[in-house]
Amino acid sequence: MTPEEERDAALTELARLRAGLAAGLTPEQSARLVGTTSEELAADAQTLAAQFGVAAPPAPPAPRSGGDRGPDVGNGAETVSGGAERYRQRHGIDEDGRRPERRQDNSDGRNPFAERTYTTNGR
After folding, report:
1. Chain-centre distance for alpha carbon 99
2. Other Cβ atoms within 10 Å of 86 Cβ, number
3. Please, are residues 16 and 2 in contact by the beta-carbon 8 Å criterion?
4. pTM value > 0.85
5. What are 3-25's pLDDT values in tens digits?
6. What does each C-alpha distance from 22 to 26, 43, 109, 120 come to in angstroms?
7. Rounded Cα gap, residues 5 and 10, in angstroms
């Protein structure tokens, strides 16, 4: 098969698929279409669709609606650097990448978990 014949075969197959999908046929059903022009293929597709009981091509899917994406939308975190800055703010990290040391309220130096401030029954 020469390159021109391969190109013509591919274009014919594409025309069959387009005509069939426009009439609501599946790609397998579209392969059965007969004709040399797009008008002949479209007429044959309509006839075949009527024989198979296909009323109309399926409707395209409904577009998805956006809606609210949460409180973080529009706060400058659309970029990587904006997101990194927001992370540093939320977690209290300074510019050097260190967290500030947290002081525990343990003014008397005792471990509150080591004390025995409870009693058990029978002991």
Report:
1. 36
2. 14
3. no
4. no
5. 999 999 999 999 999 999 888 88
6. 10, 11, 81, 81
7. 9
